[in-house]
Amino acid sequence: MSRFKSSIQVACAVGASFFFASVAHLSPVEANDKNVTVVITDHGFSPNKLTEPLHHPVHLHIENTGKEMHEFAIPEYRIYTRTLGPGETSDVEFSPWQAGSFVMYSDPYADSHPEFAGRFIVTNK
């Protein structure tokens, strides 16, 4: 029985070593979802252009640092945060499924008149 346990312990140790060795060469973006913070001020987004690879998970952390109400939207990806008051945040996680250049905007009053816009670019790399 102890020889059987030893074989299992060695197999687990070898498997764990292989796993950690294979993950060690990955960059943080490859090892985890990509985390991007988008700050909304009363004058626009920072950054106002995001470039992400096709089919790779992305986590957007949206922060309203302005004094007015704002929102974050990428309509082609059906992403719409709630209207964020000053100091509020929202998180969005998704994997872009279509390459191209898409508008991201803030329209806190939902009147089809965005207060400002930026670009969300998805590359096929």
TrEMBL record:
Stored Gene3D superfamilies: Cupredoxins - blue copper proteins
Signal in keyword set: yes
Pfam family, one: Cupredoxin_1
Protein name: Cupredoxin domain-containing protein
Organism the protein comes from: Alicyclobacillus fastidiosus
Signal peptide span: 1-31
Keyword Signal: yes
Top-level taxon: Bacteria
Keywords, in A-Z order: Signal
InterPro entries: Cupredoxin, EfeO_Cupredoxin
Organism taxonomic ancestry: Bacteria, Bacillati, Bacillota, Bacilli, Bacillales
Domain EfeO-type cupredoxin-like: 12-112
